[in-house]
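Assemble and predict.
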Amino acid sequence: DAGVIQSPRHEVTEMGQEVTLRCKPISGHNSLFWYRQTMMRGLELLIYFNNNVPIDDSGMPEDRFSAKMPNASFSTLKIQPSEPRDSAVYFCASSPRVSGANVLTFGAGSRLTVL
Amino acid sequence: GIQVEQSPPDLILQEGANSTLRCNFSDSVNNLQWFHQNPWGQLINLFYIPSGTKQNGRLSATTVATERYSLLYISSSQTTDSGVYFCAAPRGAAGNKLTFGGGTRVLVKP
């Protein structure tokens, strides 16, 4: 398996622009997570899907952020409009459904810079 | 929610040295994981260890769930061990949403 695939790896955009980050989880994994990493706040869980359904989006910072999972092999995280404080590395992770345990496998991350 | 604290925050090792990293968590857990973030930013899952001891090469981990801590041992450290080590524990009984500690930044010098 190629692992969790994220794109783009790097994105530089200007304030106010729309940003879309993409994720392909490992085939057969039923859970998908979006995390954000910053120096100030560390790794934060933004949203979590199980079987393509959003279960908990309480970590999404505000309405400018949205996430979708239209099928088992694809998810997007969208920021509209983007702001400089959104600059961070965004990670997608997936896990199999193993009797209550979830061993996370992370993608390589998408580094976002908003100017 | 659960609090996850790691110590020390920074660690400098001479190649070949051994070391222990600690993770304390505030609530009972059924899922404790250790990750290594390499200097290129990639997060690699090292251990899933809700209790007991596991070994993977030069690394081993022990979780004492009743006392709410986990330890990661690095033996005969190599420069490739450099990076940040995170532990993560779940929020809530479901065990599906991990809260990460602040990490231990390790630098192994040749």
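The interface with chain A takes residues 30-31, 33, 35, 41-45, 48, 50, 86, 88, 90, 94-103 of chain B (CB under 8 Å).
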